[in-house]
């Protein structure tokens, strides 16, 4: 393995640049270095003005999503050695407005999140002293996968529907709604129906499945969407076929 | 325009979110906001793995949890705070359950518990080995129900405003736009977490730069017990990524280069095939990290490019147990070490993990500076004493986050007058801070000291001078080096003039807080001439209850000088005794 590698990094400073440019840096290639380690080497030793987000560097805080050689990746969990001999292209996540360099504006997602009511809804809230709501291990497994989302936005960056229609709720928000819908302790599925079943909800998804392919935590948002489509279709069938009292 | 709230919370991790919900539920007339330098779900609570302790089983008792905590803390804990903590922890964890936290379950549907280091009973609740992640996301998502909780996401607080001895708000920079604003408040709660980034090798995320400790210290509030820095015994080499104590609680062994379970040589008990509570691998973190250093000195560790290591052996647990109880450990080992713990040994070494010390508070989260509150790792309410037990920090941030929220709400309700009229003294502080940020940092020319050079030297200084073992001479040297670094920081070099998401400015401000906090650690460590818990002085190897059954309170006076006071430890029912593990 060569001991150096080239990183081609997108730069964009709104005060001075009319459009993004590419900056090239040669950095050490060490086998344990992630792409993020490479960016940190640039920031600490070559160009202190490069801006990007990062924090936990263990793949759980969701801050450091970027486009690496064309694919959305968590840069802390993507290793330079896998791209040798390089060069490696690092760009901001697609489908989001770029704020600066590798930093994108995820405000749209943050505004959508509360609309799916991602919290446990009970008809009656019991006091803690009443003890836990029982949940069998199998019931926990029902929603566990959808509870693993770290909001890293890779699925939005990969989603061709979101690319065309920013009204689309998007993979992570829908998966999170399903996380609560499928939780045996939750009684709020009907309160999430309107948002999920609206035109910009599940029905906008054309099931390309890119979201699940890029998800670093195997959440499978595409599966969540398919599953909810089935539920919604069954509900509307029941509404047509059954008398009111039997629903 | 003046931004103003009744209660302002700095930091949106576990403690900050819990405090915000407490304020929102306590008094619907109050306005509350969270200012956080990252989106709340990015906060470092997300990285906690192993679990959260609270008495839930009939064979357990509050007194036993209290005793484990106090003996684990080498009798430096405030016992009144510990009593409150163990009493309220179960209710807080149940509340999280009611809010949807996916706690792991027993076959009958009850919440499951696992053993943990230094705990005599099984009382650690867990959500596989992603407990902090689930706890943080549950809190964040639940907080979205409360439309009254306003948020300043990606705003960085640079200074506390103080009006005639009372907190009046903060000055903060919005990262996206670079605008600098005063946000006034009747009460401020600091929930900014710890400062592991002061050291070179840490489990802590990049954002853990001691901001809240620095803010309070500069505003005249004392920091407490700063010399007590926890090294977690099992971090991955190079990255410092945490391998949870739960790996040992599930039955993992620590072995040296000869395959020998070396903890048996350090008064921690005798090896048995299955885990024994308060024994061997389930001893407290301070003792385990100290044992590692002894093994290095005996030449019984394995040398690697990243220094000496020992091995954590999980192979005998089998794939089923590892996947069910420790899936994240397996994921981390595969990603970052290219090994599979089902078949291979995990290389580990001690790594800076947690600050027992922090902003001094009482059991209501109230600091000596009127209107200023603190909770979570940034605070020192003294439940952790000289060494925190694993799985006590998550319930701590819930119990004391909630308490600080309620206390701040009650304080704010009692403050007369709207927060909108800003008094001249406060306005002058705002202008002063604006000048510092704009003229002294953003527009400065001729700075020559790179941020990263000062930061790296600070980290090396701390590891060499104030690590697992310290001495009077190592600490004195560290103190000298830190004052040189403070001087060098005055000519720090900033090349980025942009207002938009200027992370270089952020890094400089964080470094400045870290230098102040590092100095407080070193100076307190130098003055404490005894060994207790995580503070081990090779020149004073014994605990000295005669001189130091006392907390260190360090103040920074207006002229920049330091003053340390030693109020006695609060003892209620557990007189100081010997810490006994494994016998």
SSE layout:
The complex is a heterodimer of chains A (247) and B (583).
Chain A: E1 4-11, E2 21-28, H1 35-46, E3 65-68, E4 71-74, E5 88-91, E6 98-100, E7 103-104, H2 107-112, H3 137-144, H4 154-158, H5 160-164, H6 171-181, H7 189-197, H8 210-214, H9 221-241
Parallel strand pairs in A: 1-5
Antiparallel strand pairs in A: 1-2, 3-4, 3-5, 6-7
Helix pairs in contact in A: 6-9
Chain B: E1 3-10, H1 14-26, E2 32-36, E3 52-53, H2 62-72, H3 79-98, E4 113-114, E5 124-125, H4 131-143, E6 149-153, E7 155-163, E8 166-174, E9 180-190, H5 211-218, E10 223-224, E11 229-235, H6 246-249, E12 253-255, H7 285-297, E13 302-304, E14 307-313, H8 318-325, H9 327-337, E15 346-355, E16 358-360, E17 372-374, E18 379-380, H10 393-414, H11 424-442, H12 451-465, E19 469-470, H13 472-489, H14 503-527, E20 536-537, H15 545-548, E21 553-556, E22 562-565
Can you characterise this structure?
The complex is a heterodimer of chains A (247) and B (583). Chain A is an alpha+beta fold. Chain A is elongated and about 70 Å long. Chain A folds into two domains: 4-104, Ubiquitin-like (UB roll); 107-246, Orthogonal Bundle (Fumarate Reductase Iron-sulfur Protein, Chain B, domain 2). Chain A is 33% helix and 13% strand. In chain A, the strands form two sheets. Chain A has a five-stranded mixed beta sheet. A two-stranded antiparallel sheet of chain A has the order 6-7. With 583 residues, chain B is an alpha/beta fold. Chain B folds into three domains: 3-230 and 354-414, FAD/NAD(P)-binding domain, CATH 3.50.50.60; 235-350, Succinate dehydrogenase/fumarate reductase flavoprotein, catalytic domain (Flavocytochrome C3, Chain A, domain 1, Alpha-Beta Complex), CATH 3.90.700; 424-559, Methane Monooxygenase Hydroxylase, Chain G, domain 1, CATH 1.20.58.100. Helices cover 35% and strands 18% of the residues of chain B. Chain B is built from 15 helices and 22 strands. Chain B has helices spanning 14-26, 62-72, 79-98, 131-143, 211-218, 246-249, 285-297, 318-325, 327-337, 393-414, 424-442, 451-465, 472-489, 503-527, 545-548; strands at residues 3-10, 32-36, 52-53, 113-114, 124-125, 149-153, 155-163, 166-174, 180-190, 223-224, 229-235, 253-255, 302-304, 307-313, 346-355, 358-360, 372-374, 379-380, 469-470, 536-537, 553-556, 562-565. In chain B, strands 1, 2, 6, 7, 8, 9 and 17 form a seven-stranded mixed beta sheet that branches. In chain B, strands 18-16-10-21-22 form a five-stranded mixed beta sheet, covered by helices on one side. In chain B, strands 11, 12, 13, 14 and 15 form a five-stranded antiparallel beta sheet that branches. In chain B, a hairpin with a 5-residue loop joins β21 and β22 (562-565). The longest helix of chain B has 25 residues, at 503-527. Chain B is globular, with a radius of gyration of 23 Å. The mean pLDDT of chain B is 96. Classes of the chains: A alpha+beta (247), B alpha/beta (583). Chains A and B meet through α1 and α3 of A and α3, α4, α9 and α14 of B. Chain A: InterPro entries: 2Fe-2S_ferredoxin-like_sf, 2Fe-2S_ferredoxin-type, 2Fe2S_fd_BS, 4Fe4S_Fe-S-bd, 4Fe4S_Fe_S_CS, Beta-grasp_dom_sf, Helical_ferredxn, SDH/FRD_Iron-Sulfur. Chain A: Keywords: 2Fe-2S, 3Fe-4S, 4Fe-4S, Iron, Iron-sulfur, Metal-binding, Oxidoreductase, Tricarboxylic acid cycle. Chain A: It catalyses: a menaquinone + succinate = a menaquinol + fumarate. Chain A: Residues 139-169 form the 4Fe-4S ferredoxin-type domain. Chain A: Belongs to the succinate dehydrogenase/fumarate reductase iron-sulfur protein family. Chain B: Pfam families: FAD_binding_2, Succ_DH_flav_C.
């Amino acid at each position: 393995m060569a001991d150096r590698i080239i990183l081609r990094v997108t730069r964009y400073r709104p005060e001075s640049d009319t459009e993004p440019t590419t900056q090239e840096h040669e950095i050490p290639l060490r086998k344990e270095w992630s792409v993020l380690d490479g960016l940190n080497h640039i920031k600490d030793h070559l160009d202190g003005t490069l801006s990007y987000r990062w924090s936990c560097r263990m793949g759980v805080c969701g801050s450091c999503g970027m486009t690496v050689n064309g694919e959305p990746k968590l840069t802390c969990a993507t290793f330079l050695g896998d791209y040798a001999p390089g060069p490696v292209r690092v760009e901001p996540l697609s489908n989001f407005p770029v704020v600066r360099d590798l930093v994108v504006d995820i405000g749209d997602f943050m505004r959508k999140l509360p609309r799916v009511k991602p919290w446990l809804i009970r008809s009656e809230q019991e006091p803690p002293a009443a003890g836990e709501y029982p949940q069998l291990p199998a019931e926990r497994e029902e929603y566990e996968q959808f509870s693993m989302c770290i909001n890293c936005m890779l699925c939005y960056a990969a989603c061709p529907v979101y690319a065309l229609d920013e009204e689309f709720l998007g993979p992570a928000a829908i998966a999170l709604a399903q996380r609560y819908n499928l939780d045996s302790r939750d009684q709020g599925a009907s309160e999430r129906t309107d948002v999920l079943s609206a035109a910009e909800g599940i029905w906008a998804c054309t099931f390309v499945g890119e979201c699940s392919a890029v998800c670093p935590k195997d959440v499978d948002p595409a599966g969540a969407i398919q599953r909810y489509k089935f539920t919604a279709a069954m509900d509307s069938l029941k509404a047509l076929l059954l008398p009111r009292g039997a629903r | 325009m003046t931004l103003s709230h009744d209660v302002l919370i700095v930091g949106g991790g576990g403690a900050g979110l819990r405090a915000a919900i407490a304020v929102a539920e306590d008094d619907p007339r109050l306005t509350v906001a969270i200012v956080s330098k990252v989106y709340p779900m990015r906060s470092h609570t997300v990285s906690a793995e192993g679990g959260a302790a609270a008495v839930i089983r009939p064979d357990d008792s509050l007194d036993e949890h209290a005793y484990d905590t106090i003996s684990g803390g080498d009798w430096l804990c405030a016992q009144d705070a510990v009593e409150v903590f163990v009493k309220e922890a179960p209710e807080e964890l149940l509340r999280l359950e009611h809010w949807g936290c996916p706690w792991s379950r027993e076959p009958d549907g009850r919440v499951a518990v696992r053993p943990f280091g230094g705990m005599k009973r099984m009382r650690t609740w867990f959500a596989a080995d992603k407990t902090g992640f689930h706890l943080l996301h549950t809190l964040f998502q639940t907080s979205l129900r409360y439309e009254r909780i306003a948020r300043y996401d990606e705003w960085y607080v640079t200074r506390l405003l103080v009006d005639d001895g009372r907190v009046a708000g903060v000055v903060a920079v919005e990262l996206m736009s670079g605008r600098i604003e005063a946000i006034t408040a009747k009460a401020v709660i600091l929930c900014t977490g710890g400062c592991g980034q002061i050291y070179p090798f840490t489990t802590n995320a990049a954002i853990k730069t001691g901001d809240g400790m620095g803010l309070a210290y500069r505003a005249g509030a004392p920091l407490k017990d700063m010399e007590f820095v926890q090294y977690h015994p099992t971090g991955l080499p190079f990255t410092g990524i945490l391998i949870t104590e739960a790996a040992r609680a599930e039955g993992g062994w620590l072995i040296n280069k000869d395959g020998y379970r070396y903890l048996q040589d350090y008064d921690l008990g005798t090896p048995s095939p299955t885990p024994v509570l308060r024994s061997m691998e389930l001893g407290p973190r301070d003792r385990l990290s100290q044992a590692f250093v002894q093994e290095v000195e005996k030449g019984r560790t394995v040398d690697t490019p990243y220094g000496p290591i020992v091995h954590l052996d999980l192979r005998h647990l089998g794939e089923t147990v590892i996947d069910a109880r420790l899936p994240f450990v397996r994921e981390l080992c595969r990603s970052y070490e290219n090994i599979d713990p089902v078949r291979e040994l995990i290389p580990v070494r001690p790594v800076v993990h947690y600050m027992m010390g922090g902003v001094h508070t009482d059991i209501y989260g109230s600091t000596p500076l009127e209107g200023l509150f603190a909770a979570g790792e940034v605070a020192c309410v003294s439940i952790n004493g000289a060494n925190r037990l694993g799985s006590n920090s998550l319930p701590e941030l819930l119990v004391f986050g909630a308490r600080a929220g309620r206390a701040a709400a009650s304080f704010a309700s009692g403050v007369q007058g709207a927060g909108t009229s800003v008094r001249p003294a406060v306005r002058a502080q705002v202008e002063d801070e604006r000048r510092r940020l704009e003229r002294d940092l953003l527009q400065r020319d001729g700075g020559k000291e790179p941020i990263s050079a000062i930061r790296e030297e600070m980290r090396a200084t701390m590891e060499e001078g104030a690590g697992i073992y310290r001495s009077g001479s190592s600490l004195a040297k560290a103190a000298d080096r830190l004052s040189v670094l403070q001087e060098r920081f005055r000519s720090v070099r900033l090349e980025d003039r942009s207002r938009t998401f200027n992370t270089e400015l952020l890094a400089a401000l964080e470094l400045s807080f870290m230098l102040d906090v590092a100095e407080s650690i070193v100076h307190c460590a130098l003055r404490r001439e005894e060994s207790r818990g995580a503070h081990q002085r090779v020149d004073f190897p014994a605990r000295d209850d005669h001189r130091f059954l006392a907390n260190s309170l360090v103040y920074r006076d207006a002229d920049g000088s330091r003053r340390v006071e030693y109020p006695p430890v609060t003892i209620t029912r557990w007189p100081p005794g010997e810490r006994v593990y494994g016998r």
